[in-house]
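Task 17 of the worksheet. Students: predict the tertiary structure of the chain below and write it out as structure tokens. Keep your answer in the requested format; marks are given for formatting as well as content.
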Amino acid sequence: MTTTHTLDIAGGRLHYEVRGSGPTPLLVMGSPMAAAYFAPLAEALAEQYTVVTHDPRGISGSVLDDPTQDSTPELRADDVAALMDALGAGSADVFGSSGGAVTGLALVARHPQRVRTLVAHEPPLLELLPDAAEQRAAIDDIIETFHREGMGAAYARFMAQAGFTGATQGPPVQPSEQMVADSRRFFAHEMRGTTRHVPDIAALKAAPGRIVVGVGAESGGTTPYRTSEALAGLLGTSPAEFPGDHGGFIGHPQEFAEVLRKVLSG
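Model answer:
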């Protein structure tokens, strides 16, 4: 059974969903991906965990008082900490994918006692790459393309920049009104802050919980794969391999959940 809830946060309201009744809370998150994208994965994990998914601030059902406010990993991390407070969870396991993985890293740095294990799946930390300046310019170009030419052209450049070729990325062929709004939010107010986040490696290493960097088995050569390898190297660990590509939890939810359970059990 899935229950839906809302939570007042700084400057807005958060939509979140709870599945399962396992003894261990597991927060599953993306950015800009809303809770709906993680529903199959959450269902596959609900027998063992109390799985909590949410729409990031400004996305889908999570509304802001000021829709023009930029989203940063730090703001999203504080939202997650507030969500944990609402759940009565002193600490939890966390799985974050893409921008959600960046949120998870900021959560560990800002609230280290709250995270038992963070699985950071392909965080797009472009500042960790040797060609960071070129990557930064590419992101600026994508955002300018969105404002100048619209969502379709911006997504085409985004896919090329990231090296994505699969069907699990980007909007549907005929995007809904909500997808258009979420894409506008992503390009105009979220993409730059997420990709330019520089993780506090010293704080991450000092945190009491574990941090596992995840990569997709089919992601080799993509930009998020490169950033994940760079992060794992800085942390002195090796990446854990998950089924599929950057969106493997969408295409292979059962297999993905099986690997995630093994990683979390450590």
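Marker's comment: The longest strand covers residues 2-9. The two ends are 28 Å apart (CA to CA).
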